[in-house]
Amino acid sequence: MELLTACSDVNFPAKTASYSGTAAATGSWPAGPQGVLVWGSSDMYVTVGEGVTATTSSTPIPANTPVPLTVPGGTGAPWRVSAIQVSATGTLYAKPMNIR
Fold first, then answer.
1. Calpha distance 100→87 (Å, rounded)
2. pLDDT by residue (tens digit) across 36-88?
3. If we measure between CA atoms, which residue out of 76, 69, 12, 63 comes closest to residue 36?
4. Residue 3: pLDDT above 90?
5. What residue numbers bound the domain in which 27 lies?
6. Bridge partner residues of 60 (DSSP)
7. Is 2 inside any structural domain?
8. Count of domains observed in the chain
9. Is 35 among the domain residues?
10. What is the C-alpha to C-alpha distance for residues 11 and 28, in angstroms, rounded to an integer?
11. What pLDDT does residue 73 have?
12. Which of 56, 61, 65, 99 falls between 20 and 30 A from 35, CA-CA?
């Protein structure tokens, strides 16, 4: 089992977004972290990357279940997390992490 270390709160603060039947996204973070810990207050579909928007084809995550996801490599541009509801509105929580 690999341990995760939270990234600096100064450069990589935790962010939230309120999702519904319309996808919502956190604000963006600069490139650098290896992963992000995400969870939501209701079942949701999530995607991570540069300029992404979640759809019902994105990764499903059950309510109140923290899940570490990889931040995909890209162009080095800012990245974000996006979520859309499965059946109820909710709040997405996300915190950038690195593998320790």
1. 35
2. 999 999 999 999 999 999 999 999 999 999 999 999 988 899 999 999 999 99
3. 69
4. no
5. 13-99
6. 45
7. no
8. 1
9. yes
10. 11
11. 85
12. 56
User: Does residue 61 contact residue 46 with C-beta atoms inside 8 Å?
Assistant: yes
Q: Using the predicted structure, report yes or no on whether residue 100 has a pLDDT greater than 80.
A: no
Residue type, 31: A
Tokens of 55: 């759809």
7 in any annotated domain:
no
Nearest-CA neighbor of 79 among 51, 41, 59? 51
Class of residue 84 by CB neighbours under 10 A (exposed 0-12, middle 13-18, buried 19+): buried
Give residue for tokens 């990357």.
49
Instruction: Output the pLDDT for position 80.
Output: 98
46 domain-assigned: yes
**Token pair 């991570």: residue:** 48
- What would the two tokens of residue 57 be? 């084809």
Q: DSSP string covering 39-92, please?
A: EESS-EEEEEETT----TTSEEE-TT--EEEE----SS--BEEEEEESSS-EEE
Q: Are 23 and 84 in contact (CB under 8 A)?
A: yes
